[in-house]
Amino acid sequence: MKDMLWGSATAAYQCEGAWNEDGKGASIWDEFCHSDKNETGITGDISCDFYHHYKEDIRMMAECGQNTFRFSISWSRIIPKEDGVVNEAGLAFYDNILDECEKYGIIPNVTLIHYDLPDYIGAKGGWCYPGVADAFAYYCKVCFEHFGNRIPLYVTINEPNHNAYCNYCVGNYPPNETNLQHYARCCYNMACCTAKAIREFRKLHLTSKIGFVQGCGPATSLLDTPEYRQAVKYCNYFCRDPFLDPAILGYYNPEMLEEIQKKGIDLSFMKQEDLDIMKENTIDFLGQNIYSRMLVKPNTSGITAFVVNNKGNNDGTGNTRRESRAISGWFEFDRDPNTVLNKWGREIYPQCAYTTLMETSRRYHNIEIYVTENGHGMYETCDENGYVEDDERIEFLSNYLYWILKAKEDGANVKGYYVWSTMDLYSWINGYKKRYGLVHVDYEDKQLKRTPKKSYYWYQEFIKNHS
Ligand code: BG6
């Protein structure tokens, strides 16, 4: 499979540590984790300290046979303050990572923001700040000019849908609000961010490509009745269309905008000049994260509510409350009695990889797709050597990969696959107990010792057999 990249993924706040080293400014996650709002007191201040261990981590990736690495750049490492002055040490850190990747022939797939807005943007209203897209485009321009073609695959934003959802619906991510008006504003501003960043990107005529990463697949339902089809449509209005339509097609569906307004959301923040920029600046590829499916039914309860797996459920007990979301009159989550949930209440359903890739390809003109994340969170114990036998993860990954490769075979334009995550790292509100890595990190050890897990060797074999 020559046209397929095989790798794994991380994100700056989750793995770098060094939160205030070498001139880095604070991000909204530094601010949140250091505040009283952080109920667990757990932070990403050190995490697995990728900042000082990147050579070892990239070498281990290469030894596993991985030929691509997805990581993100911390905006506040590059532009620490509101004055816009560029921090050369920040650029140098990412130059070093790129050097290391080049040394092993690993292709970098780099996300410009993965949740960690600079705190100075947060103080002005974060993703709802009207100036966020211009500030983001400026930061991206600095990156494009500096890194240029050394980064062949750029991603503007990681999971605008999930980020906006956690920030403004559930309220478990900073700024911890529950406000659908702000959710709508945030989604729109994120679409403007992507379009304005692409406008800067195109000016440089790089050979690199640019995309964004979507966090969930299209909605689906157990029944096929007019009411269920309607629920599916509304869930897509909430989770998919406001993100993929402007980024890929360059416009919003007018019927969706009308329905949103009927829900009482004021869309007067939408400006013709922004819409013109979106129309002219669409993405080259889609990054698609695949974990679970959006299974919905008509909303009969009349309730609007959002429950995430990780709020109040990070104590290691594995409470399996179902993850769910509901919008009065639109849709609510359904439960398939024939499937299992993971320890955080998220459904495990490998076939969703196939439907996601096939349906997305159909709707969006067979766009090039990278599966930018796929992984399984687990509570783990290691032996005295740090070795973890994570058979459950191997089963999860191989089942999902079966459906991903089947979608590729059946015509989806899938170009790459990334396991989440390269090594154990900070799992947002779940802290460090929920592990995803192919490589175990001993957080008790001063050197943060790395040990490949059984899944690492399984992946090594898998790549060998598929290259
Ligand atoms: C994705 C994010 O949504 O899921 C990652 O892009 C995240 O940053 C991953 O870590 C797993 O989610 P969680 O909350 O279990 O860490």
Radius of gyration: 21 Å
Low-confidence segments, ≥5 residues, pLDDT <50?
311-316
Distance between the termini: 5 Å
Biggest sheet character: 8 strands, parallel, barrel
Q: Can you count the beta strands?
A: 17
Roughly how much helix do the residues carry, as a percent range?
25-40%
Key attributes of the depicted protein:
about 475 residues; alpha/beta; 16 helices; 17 strands; globular; binds 6-O-phosphono-beta-D-glucopyranose
Care to describe what's here?
Helix content is 40%, strand content 16%. The chain contains 16 helices and 17 strands. The strands form four sheets. An eight-stranded parallel beta barrel has the order 1-2-3-4-5-7-14-15, surrounded by five helices. The chain has a five-stranded mixed beta sheet with strand order 6-8-11-10-9. A two-stranded antiparallel sheet has the order 12-13. The termini are close together. About 1% of the residues have low confidence. Bound molecules: 6-O-phosphono-beta-D-glucopyranose. The site of 6-O-phosphono-beta-D-glucopyranose has 15 residues, from loops.
Short overview:
This protein is of the alpha/beta class and 467 residues long. It has helices at 12-15, 28-33, 50-64, 75-78, 88-104, 119-122, 132-147, 160-170, 180-203, 226-239, 241-249, 254-262, 272-280, 352-363, 391-409, 454-465; strands at residues 5-9, 68-72, 107-113, 153-158, 209-214, 219-220, 285-289, 294-297, 305-307, 324-327, 331-333, 340-341, 347-348, 368-374, 414-420, 439-441, 450-452.
